[in-house]
Design goal:
4-stranded mixed sheet, Basic amino acid ABC transporter substrate-binding protein, alpha/beta, lipoprotein, 259 residues, 5-stranded mixed sheet, 9 helices, signal, SBP_3_CS
């Protein structure tokens, strides 16, 4: 990934070989929170993940280049709102509350919250979370889901800057469960069998969620990226990236039906 110095500003890049003229390409600043494997995380100082491969493919279709910057969860919302960043990208669920402040692309990923617990836990459903100590990432739909189950401002809900810290709290015995996006907790269990954790699913308590690219209100980029997302959904590139990261095929028709 090219590391560029743009901060939401335009830069000129030359066209390909044989081009009679120079093509202007805007380098878009993409703000993320790179502690959310497998969507975005740091590997040897580089931000990688499913979201990163996805945004690069979509930006290429739209005729842009991107600079992905790891700023943190709360700061990325500030950057997009203040138009410091052109796009927010961090497995961000589209919901009515966020749509009051931001514009979102068409959905690009289907997710749901699940519960991460130690083997042998008596937590079998979301209802069993009551009276338990629960670790969540603050400001996420996981926190919202937990608040709806155990009540807002419940002192037994521990809020952390990112899911890595929430899971560390579970592993250290400081929490009975973590609630987070299914892909995140499933990936953690797969990659850390020594921790002896399992994932609990409760479809009746956790709604399906859809991720989208987040833009400042009124951004002209939304229409361009909606078109580009549909192009990668239709031409097989999305399925290729999804397969590489998750080892299965995505439900592309379900995603397109949400538009």
């Amino acid at each position: 990934m090219m590391i560029l110095s743009a901060c939401g500003t335009s830069q000129e890049t030359s066209g390909g070989e044989g081009s009679d003229s120079k093509e202007e390409k805007k380098v878009l600043r993409v703000a993320t929170e790179a502690n959310y494997a497998p969507f975005e995380y740091q590997d040897k100082g580089e931000v990688v993940g499913f979201d990163i491969d996805f945004i690069q493919a979509v930006a290429k279709e739209a005729g842009y280049e991107v600079e992905v910057v790891n700023v943190g969860w709360d700061p990325l919302f500030v950057e997009v709102k203040d138009e410091i960043a052109d796009i927010g990208l961090s497995a961000i669920t589209i919901n009515d509350d966020r749509k009051q402040t931001y514009d979102f692309s068409v959905p690009y990923f289907l997710s749901t919250n699940k519960i991460l617990v130690p083997e042998g836990s008596d937590i079998k459903t979301a209802a069993d979370l009551k009276d338990k100590v629960i670790a969540v990432q603050t400001g996420t739909t996981g926190q919202e889901a937990v608040d709806s189950i155990v009540g807002e401002n419940n002192p037994k809900v521990k809020k952390f800057e990112n899911n890595n810290l929430a899971i560390m709290e579970l592993n250290s015995g400081g929490a009975d469960a973590v609630v987070a996006d299914n892909t995140v907790v499933e990936e953690y269990v797969k990659n850390n069998p020594d921790k002896k954790l399992i994932v609990v699913e409760d479809e009746d308590s956790f709604d399906a969620e859809y991720y989208g690219l987040m833009f400042p209100k009124g951004s002209k980029l939304k229409a361009e990226f909606d078109e580009a997302i549909n192009q990668v959904l239709d031409n097989g590139k999305y399925t290729e990236i999804y397969n590489e990261w998750f080892g299965s095929d995505p439900d592309v028709e379900n995603l397109k039906a949400q538009q």
